[in-house]
Amino acid sequence: MHLETFDWRIHRSGGALEFHPGRRGGRLLWRNQGDGIRHRLAVDSAPSFPAELPEGPLRDEIASAASVRRLVPVVTRRARKETIRILDDLGKTVARAELERSEPIHDPRPRVADHVLRVVPMRGYDEAFDRLEAFVVGDLGLPAGAPGPYVRALQTLGRAPGDYTDKPEFELEPDMRADDAARRIHLALLDVMDANVAGIRDDVDTEFLHDFRTAVRRIRAALSQIKGVFPESVVDRHKEEFRWLQRGTGALRDLHVHTLRLPTYEGELPAVVRRRLAPLREYLRAHTVSAHQDVCTLLASPRFERLDATWRGFLESGGPARPEPPEAAKPAIEVATARIARAFRRVVRRGDRICDSSPAAALHDVRIECKKLRYLVTFFESLFPTAATERLVGGLKGLQDHLGDFNDLEVQQAALSRFADDMVKEGYASSEALLAMGRLVERLAVRQSAERDRFEQRFAEFASEENRVLVAELFGGGS
Amino acid sequence: MRVFATYSIKGGVGKTATAVNLAYLSAQDGTRTLVWDLDPQGAATFYFRVKPKVKGAGRRLIRGKVPLLDAVRGTDHEGLDLVPSDFRYRHMDLVLDSTKRPVRQLARLLAPVRKEYDHVFLDCAPSISLVSESVFRAADVLLVPTIPTTLSLRTLDQLHRSLAELSPGRILVLPFFCMTDCRKSLHREVMAARADAPYPFLETEIPYASLVERMGVRRAPLHTFSRRSVPARAFRGLWTEVKKRVAEADRAG
Fold this sequence. Notes:
The structure holds two protein chains of two kinds. Chain A is of the alpha+beta class. Chain A is about 60% helix and about 10% strand. Chain A has a five-stranded antiparallel beta sheet. A three-stranded antiparallel beta sheet of chain A has the order 6-7-8. Chain A is globular. Chain B is globular. Chain B is of the alpha/beta class. Chain B has an eight-stranded mixed beta sheet, sandwiched between helices. The interface of A and B includes residues 38, 91, 92, 124 and 125 of A.
């Protein structure tokens, strides 16, 4: 049984996680791609989360790759492996070849078994390995570097490692019509959004909702930032619908975030005070259950189905030969450069206006403009030289991370205050819990103030002469 | 990475059997394990069927001119690797002496393999020498197989005094009784007097068993050919207890 997260994190970290059922429980193996087995552990059953495993290097490796995502069997196959050992005159194994016969279990069609020969190197016996490899490729004539049985089994399911990503690449051509480019961008985002619906409904893990909302956010950004390519009525209607979607899922996401954050909060308080947060945990749990039901209702609603179907229908049908919207027929690259240049100017203008006495809301505005710029650059990346866009995004990321932290600290304080109010109203609160939460709020305020002091420097780094010149070159019009 | 060393001033007490069998159990746990056979007799290397030849084993490896990783050989057992012994190790004291800081040298040589292995077992030659001092410095846990005789307890006292003198830092000393014969009254008396020892003995004892000597005929760790025998179970119990004591020491800080 091959275990993976929905977004292929195990594969992306260079590994492969297998569960081999035995008579009593089974074995969990971590393989490094191309290498042999890196970690092995006897377990009672296939784990869903690393926390279910005993402490040790395997748990650490999985946790670092999968983070908060659930491990799910992505394909199951029955395999029989025969090990062929090459021995030296002392009877010592100096090289190994594994002959594996593998069939995917899901397949109801006549079994198609795969036979793969894997030549395994052994430390300190390089010569033997080279000779064995030369024999297999030369004398036996087997092609080297074929995909292993795991990938082949995935292929029978029509899948491949990395076939879902929350960051799709938008492949655009410079002379494409702008509205076709926008359609391509929107479809890719809609696909990401739809891909996460089942995982949200079945409450598999918290990140399905996160990826869903990120896709919705990007769709809304595309709708408002790529102006003049679609009929206004269509745009307005769908802005409204996606805003409804964003709003309807916000509460659950907040609860997820705070639940994930609880261990950090607990860590911030001295040990003797820690357990006083228990009422907060209870409150979060109860509200998460009902918020999840609300989201399920939303996703099952006719309104959502209609939105999905009509929007996809609109995107998949091409635009008319002589479109009405002013920018629609222009070359994509023209529209892209204009929008990006304008977005950059807006970031710089807002940031320039900030001084010590500016309220937090002013930083919030800069943050919003940065996001718009970032989304635009990412949407149209494929039209520009990679090195240049990477540099711009790199600089932008530094500023965005800072503004994000600042905003996040503010949001956390507001949320904790809100929870405290609700907890009192709903009877979850003890004075101890509230005092502990008060301490947390204060610490957050201190950190927020420190973060505020860093704004000037971070902004100056981004709005540097170098970056302005870069933007002017790339997008014809910086400051 | 945690370094275990099987150590005894006397020979023939079961150092190598202990190192090989515990390393095997460690690898079976899923922990990446390396054995370094420091004994020029090369018994551990013999048990693993590896040729006792290391490129540059003499001066170049010990002086750090050849990285330790280059000398590693995979054994027949998954997750378990070996740095084989070489007869030139008989000069190791002299070679260590020629380095800048002889007592820290083994620790220095082990540092680069930290990322590759979680457990390292050093199988030491029976002696008290510069090599042993270097081992004391490099090791986190010292496993001391002790035959229950008066002389053995005496050597344990000597070890205690040497360690105090050398002050190698925090090292966990875990003596345990091995090759015990409950029919011998001397053995029974000595084991009963364990409380007098300078270090707390492990509860598990490894009884004498000719099956352990079969390892030299089979040339493999005990658990590969005799999983349910008395000595096999005893070694498993020993490994469990060692892990427990290590965890306790970690918690105590």
